[in-house]
């Protein structure tokens, strides 16, 4: 659709390279300030989660160590579980595709 005479903007004067550079640098500085403000807000919002995460850290390390030890000593069980998980995922994808085709 062509712009009509009423909606068409007059052609702007091309900016010089230094003007364009100054404009871009000002935009960049504003974006940096915005990011700084938002990061402070994000840190304040997530601080309760960070504090509670520390209480879960040690038990998760212990559970991960035990699981790794069990995996190293008996790798067949993990392989079987991986095959079952992959088969379940593939079955889910096929059922989803079948439901899409059926509707």
Can you give a write-up of this model?
- The structure is a single chain.
- With 103 residues, this protein is mostly helical.
- 83% of the residues lie in helices and 0% in strands.
- The chain has two helices and no strands.
- The protein has helices at 17-73, 75-102.
- Helix 1 crosses helix 2.
- The longest helix is centred in the middle third of the chain and has 57 residues, at 17-73.
- It is flat.
- The two termini are 38 Å apart.
- The mean pLDDT is 87.
List keywords for this structure.
103 residues; 83% helix; single chain; mainly alpha
Radius of gyration over C-alpha positions, nearest whole angstrom: 29 Å
- Dominant shape: flat
Q: What proportion of the residues form beta strands (DSSP E)?
A: under 5%
What is the number of helical segments per DSSP (H or I, 4+ residues)?
Answer: 2
Largest β-sheet summary: none
**SSE order:** HH
- Give the helix proportion (percent range): over 70%
Low-confidence segments, ≥5 residues, pLDDT <50?
Answer: none
Give the strand tally.
0
**Taking all residues together, what is the mean pLDDT?**
87
Instruction: Quote the distance from N terminus to C terminus.
Output: 38 Å
* Derived structural class: mainly alpha
Compose a concise summary of this entry.
The protein has 103 residues and is mainly alpha-helical.
Produce the secondary structure layout.
Blueprint: H1 17-73, H2 75-102
